[in-house]
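Notes from the 1:1 (GR / supervisor)

We went over the backlog. Supervisor wanted to see one worked example end to end before approving the batch request, so GR pasted a single chain during the call. The sequence is below; no edits were made to it. Supervisor asked that the structure be written out right there so they could see what the output format looks like.
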Amino acid sequence: MTPDPKPSGDPSTRDIAEVPALEVVSTAALHLMSAAAVHLGLAEDLPDHRDLDEARTLIDALAGLVTAAAPQMGHHHAAPLRDGLRSLQLAFREASEVPDLAGEGPGERLTGPVSPTRSGR
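Structure output shown during the call:
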């Protein structure tokens, strides 16, 4: 007998089929943002932790996710994710002892170069 994957009567368990795509994408993006922030040394409980290689990988993945999903998400939902991504890219640039060339930082091949003086923000 195969166990029921969703115990009946447990309101804390949601079937993945019931979760809107927007929520799945947003949740994945927030996990990537949080992990990147930790590896950039931005976490309050781990301020001395820094692993820029790990942060680069996470920011690249976040850029790919946000870039691919933004057209379907609409501006209202995509804008905060883009802002968070840009903040992480800038934090990475600031944390790097040898900064990447413009357009070569994490995620920049997808988002374009980021700089603190970019107009419009």
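Supervisor's comment: Residues 20-97 form one domain.
Batch request approved.
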